[in-house]
Amino acid sequence: MENTQLLELANKYGSPLYVYDTDKIESQYNRLTSAFSSVKNLKLNYAVKALSNINILKFFKNLGAGLDTVSYQEVQLGLTTGIDPKKIIYTPNGVSLTEIEEVAKLGVQINIDNLSILESFGQKHPEIPVCVRINPHIMAGGNSKISVGHIDSKFGISIHQVPHIKRVVENTKMNINGIHMHTGSDILDIDTFLRATEILFDVAKQFENIDFIDFGSGFKVPYKEGDISTDIEQLGVQLSERFNEFCVEYGKDITLMFEPGKFLVSEAGVFLAKVNVVKQTTSTVFAHVDSGFNHLVRPMMYNSHHHITNISNPAGRDRYYSVVGYICETDTFASNRRISEISEEDVLCFHNAGAYCFSMASNYNSRYLPAEVMIVDGKDYLIRKRQTIKDILHNQEVVEISSKKKKEAVTA
């Protein structure tokens, strides 16, 4: 997506605006499948939570991907694409037995992450195959908020509780058909990841009817020039060899699963915002844009870095700016960032905005959610309209309330 095209889209659809390049999505999907091409049975389940627009889900369906979901609603979104329910895996955390039962009725693969629900579900529905999420007690991930496989994490069943899982299976006669883990996002250390996979292999050996092992995802993508990322190709070589060995040891060809989200869509997305005000203070030059953390919360929530370019003046002289939003509290996208000279009305482009950006947006300050555009074979398609005040008011009920004190005052 070139600057001229992005400027045309900002003019056509207004700002702020999310834009997604499907060519990049497809290349990332092909890169991952190629890295594990030596595995007989490979299945990629796109993590819906990263970017849940139904047009994106349809695109992944057409690529041949399954879907990784974490809520009943995400399952419903996936089913609207016409995807086979059997190609959807449902991995919630701390939800009620009722929700899991409702999802099970839809025919998707159930993945359970705690002993209490596992036992309750097994007692009532022993005929439904279930995957179990294991906590390998391994720290991985670039931020404490997205590291989910360590010993103090709320996610998964501890590896030390595998005997309890086996006892539940024995008592309920339920069928465990898959083993799952997710250590965290922004994985860099391949050796740490491979150490966790060995733990899963050891667990899988203890169950007779395993059809797949889901190794999660969390592969790191580069966020700025010179940034490091997960070496997918090297991981593919090492894990594929070990996985194929395990299949021989286990006695059958099971499926290797991943649930990538950020890896597939992060670099494919950009966020466009227009500069309202350039404000000079005694020590800082602020570029105020027509957005805030209501639309892009990651810098404030995770201290994440999003490379920012001025696509209205890409060849301008570099200066230093703090890029901030219009929310009625601190909402800083970047501090003292080197960007080509900014003028009011310029359009700034926030890169790596495809994952966990729109999907985490809100109506804070009663601001509208932005529009979304998808580029397919060079052509732009509006895949979500910008909100209006009608959308803000939708589902709000107006209640007529009379004030007793006011009436008494008027009468007096």
From TrEMBL:
InterPro entries with a match to the protein in the record: Ala_racemase/Decarboxylase_C (IPR009006), DAP_deCOOHase_LysA (IPR002986), De-COase2_C (IPR022643), De-COase2_N (IPR022644), Orn/DAP/Arg_de-COase (IPR000183), PLP-binding_barrel (IPR029066)
Catalytic activity annotation: meso-2,6-diaminopimelate + H(+) = L-lysine + CO2
Required co-factors: pyridoxal 5'-phosphate
MF term (GO), any: pyridoxal phosphate binding
Family indicated by similarity: Belongs to the Orn/Lys/Arg decarboxylase class-II family. LysA subfamily.
One record GO biological process: lysine biosynthetic process via diaminopimelate
Residue ranges of domain Orn/DAP/Arg decarboxylase 2 N-terminal in the record: 23-266
Known EC number: 4.1.1.20
Function: Specifically catalyzes the decarboxylation of meso-diaminopimelate (meso-DAP) to L-lysine.
Protein name: Diaminopimelate decarboxylase
Amino acids binding pyridoxal 5'-phosphate: G218, Y356
Pathway in which the depicted protein is active: Amino-acid biosynthesis; L-lysine biosynthesis via DAP pathway; L-lysine from DL-2,6-diaminopimelate: step 1/1
Transmembrane spans: none
HAMAP family: LysA
Ranges of residues in domain Orn/DAP/Arg decarboxylase 2 C-terminal: 18-354
Active-site residues, record numbering mapped to chain: C328
Subunit comment: Homodimer.
N6-(pyridoxal phosphate)lysine sites (modified residues): K49
Ligand binding (substrate): R298, Y302, E329, Y356
One Pfam family in the UniProt entry: Orn_Arg_deC_N
PANTHER family the UniProt entry points to: DIAMINOPIMELATE DECARBOXYLASE, GROUP IV DECARBOXYLASE
Organism: Polaribacter vadi
Keywords: Amino-acid biosynthesis, Decarboxylase, Lyase, Lysine biosynthesis, Pyridoxal phosphate
